[in-house]
Amino acid sequence: MELKEKILSIVTPTRGNFSDYWLEQLLAVKGNVEFILVYPPNEIVKPFYDPRLKVIHSSFKGETIQRMTGILNTSGKYILALDDDDFVHPDVLKFTSEYFQKNPHSWVLRLNKKNISYLDEETIKSDWGKLPEISEMEIVKGRNKSDREQTLREIPIAPLENKFKISAFWPYTKRTDHKGPHIENFNNKVWRTEMVKKSLFELSNTMKLADPITWLPFWSLDRLLGLFLQAQYYQKDICVGHWLPEPEQIRYISKPYSLKETRVIFPADALLVRKFPQYGYFWNLFFNELYNGLKTTIKKKLSYIKHEKM
Q1: Are 109 and 242 in contact, with CB atoms under 8 Å apart?
Q2: Do the bridges between strand 151-156 and strand 138-140 make them parallel or antiparallel, or are there none, so unpaired?
């Protein structure tokens, strides 16, 4: 008999070009979990036979709208956003349940992520390591000497009150206030669904520029939502969650930029500035990504012109 309320929802936007192995490993996750795959409109979907898997078509194509659609259709108490080429530990539900039972006021559980080259098939398909019981882990502040220490490391809220730096106007200034033990991104972490959906509702309102106009970035709901949520519930210097140690629970498959689609993500950062102009952290981020976007566009254009002349 299927339980009515799911504990964990795993949401993945996709175009359907994931591997059979990836899907097999996703469905190997144990327990009371739902999997939500969100496709672009009119995308042909092959049949699936796991009753825990739900397929949705979004209204438009794009990572932002597809992931938003998936999140709004979750029924789990907690949410994990996963891309369709990254892998999660089959016991992630066990970690999640034990962690939030021990830390009922936490917003987020940061899973330990290992970057693996897409060519390193042996490591990708290796057995997962086993963590000790979360109830036995000591909680520590700051950075561990090593992630191999079996402790839960505290995660402070992002330092949004950092002052805006005038040097951010200079296109070659390197941003530094993102460094530290805090987090920015939403993906590959387990969040409380109630907080996420409330923040997503406010974010969708921020996207409305005027009655007939909506600002909908194609990319980067990942960082946008992670920071928007922290700003929505901001309390200076509080601990928002904890970071699990090694062995890894997320395998992030890295590829060279030549194999990736060009992504200009400052339009998403503009929404943070629009909603929360009081935080210098967001202004520093916006100008940094604005110049990065311009550089990326110019390089792509020059590369195209060079190719045409050959």
Answers
A1: yes
A2: parallel
Residues 6+ apart with CB under 8 A from 16: 39, 43, 44, 45, 46
Q: Quote the crossing angle between the two packed helices 193-206 and 63-72, to the nearest 10°.
A: 130
To which residue do tokens 């972490």 refer?
Answer: 189
Report the C-alpha gap between 234 and 251 in whole angstroms. 30
| CB-count exposure of residue 122 (10 Å: 0-12, 13-18, 19+) | exposed
Question: Side-chain half-sphere of 192: how many Cα atoms within 13 Å?
Answer: 18
126-161 per-residue burial string, b: 16 or more CB within 10 A, e: under 16: eebeebeebeebeeeeeeeeebeebbbbbbbbbbbe
pLDDT (average), residues 250-278: 86
* pLDDT for residue 147: 53
Q: How do residues 173-212 score in pLDDT, each as one tens digit?
A: 777 787 889 999 999 999 999 999 999 999 999 999 887 8
Burial of residue 99, with CB atoms counted within 10 A of its CB: 0-12 exposed, 13-18 middle, 19 or more buried: buried
* Burial of 182 per CB tally in 10 Å (0-12, 13-18, 19+): middle
Peptide bond into 247 cis (omega under 30): yes
Say yes or no to pLDDT of 219 above 60.
yes
pLDDT in tens, 63-116: 999 999 999 999 999 999 999 999 999 999 999 999 999 999 999 999 999 999
Both tokens assigned to 35: 């999997």
Which amino acid type is present at position 22? Answer: W
- The CA distances from residue 180 to 70, 118, 154, 307, in Å, are 30, 28, 12, 41
What's this model's pTM, rounded to 2 decimal places? 0.90
